[in-house]
Amino acid sequence: MKSSLPLPVRVAAGLAVLTVEQARKLPEQLAGLPVTVVSQALQLSMRVQQRVTELAIKGDDALATLRPTEETPEWATFDEDEPGTEEYSQGDTADTGEPTDPWLQEEQAFAERTPSPEDGSGVAVLPEYDELTIPQLRARLRRFTVDELEELLTYERSHAGRPAYVGMLTRRISTVRANG
Predict the structure, then answer these.
(1) What pTM was estimated for this model as a whole?
(2) Gyration radius (Cα) of the chain, Å
(3) Mind giving me the DSSP string for 125-158?
(4) Could you give the CA distance from residue 15 to residue 138 in angstroms, rounded to a whole number?
(5) Alpha-carbon distances of 32 from 28, 35, 37, 55, rounded to whole Å
(6) Residue 116: predicted pLDDT
(7) pLDDT at position 60
């Protein structure tokens, strides 16, 4: 059925009905309004953070062309992880003839010390083995032969069986064998 009323009157009637419908929904919308406002504020905050991060990345890229970036720092790797480091560590000395590598200095200090076996505990090649931390043990591993390393590994497996120690000793044995 087509209405004989003019278009503006029909549109005005439609707006009046829409206004009444929206007025009826208003109490429900007011209850959810705080949640909506907080949600929209958080979304806006996240968008701003994303834009700032994007700008910082673009700025880093632009500045990187002006200054060279540092390659992987030498402290980021361990000696036994890289083949051929035995030669490097032997010749790393200052003008005084003393080693400048702190690991080599510690290793030399322990090599000069005469081990005194305590009441039969520990391993013959390294009597203080049971008291060593991972970094302390790592500093001493370069001076051992494959047989001595295997003796330490056998001792570790039969006593404490600590996974970190077993893994380090196993890797060192593989490295020494590979560098033959």
Answers:
(1) 0.36
(2) 37
(3) TBTTGGG--HHHHHHHGGG--HHHHHHHHHHHHH
(4) 82
(5) 7, 5, 9, 35
(6) 46
(7) 82
Residue with the two structure tokens 């949600």 = 39
Chain-centre distance of CA 3, in angstroms?
Answer: 73
Q: Tell the residue number behind the tokens 């009441």, with chain if given.
A: 119
**Quick one: tokens of 61?**
């890229």
Of residues 76, 139, 130, the one with CA closest to residue 105: 139
> Angle, to 10 degrees, between the axis of helix 163-179 and the axis of helix 146-158?
160
Residues of the chain with pLDDT under 50: 85-91, 114-119
Tokens of 174: 């593989």
State the DSSP string of 56-97. HHHHHHHHHTTSPPP-S-GGGS-GGGSTTHHHHHHH-B-TTS
Q: How far is CA 102 from CA 89, 133, 135, 139, in A?
A: 10, 16, 12, 9
Angstrom distance (rounded) from CA 75 to CA 26: 65
Q: How many residues does the chain have?
A: 180
Residue 160, pLDDT score: 85
Q: What letter represents residue 164's amino acid?
A: A
Residues 6+ apart with CB under 8 A from 132: 126, 140
